[in-house]
Design goal:
By secondary structure, the chain is mostly helical. The chain has a domain of 40 residues. Helices cover 73% and strands 0% of the residues. The chain is built from three helices and no strands. 0% of the residues are buried.
Length: 126
């Protein structure tokens, strides 16, 4: 009698496994059909896109770190450019003063020699 009960259990278990296998096979068939015919379905040529902008009422933290870094670098470069320009202007002014000083010195020296004789002036003239 136990053999009949065991046999009945085996049939029940085999039927249950078979039903599960059929369910799994049906699920796999649906997936394969959807995958294989994905380009033949309606509107398959169009890709669904989603906007990149997050809603304003989002809890997401705004991250402007890169933007701020770029702005800081830009400001720093502008300040450096201004500083170099001022330094160049100062150096030009110093050079101008130095040249003027040399010209005055040359005029002074030329004035001393110029009083001696007119022939001397002509020999130094360019």
């Amino acid at each position: 009698m136990e053999e009949a009960g065991d046999d009945h259990y085996e049939k029940y278990r085999a039927k249950k496994e078979n039903d599960e296998d059929e369910g799994r096979d049906d699920e796999m068939d649906r997936y394969e059909k959807g995958y294989n015919f994905r380009y033949e379905e309606k509107n398959s040529a169009y890709l669904t896109t989603h906007g990149r902008d997050a809603p304003e009422d989002s809890m997401r933290r705004v991250d402007d770190k890169r933007k701020q870094t770029r702005l800081d670098a830009k400001v720093r470069k502008e300040e450096e450019k201004l500083r170099k320009k001022e330094e160049i202007n100062k150096l030009k002014a110093l050079k101008r003063e130095e040249i003027l000083h040399k010209l005055k010195k040359a005029e002074y020296v030329a004035g001393k020699f110029g009083n001696e004789s007119k022939d001397n002036k002509e020999s130094y003239a360019l």
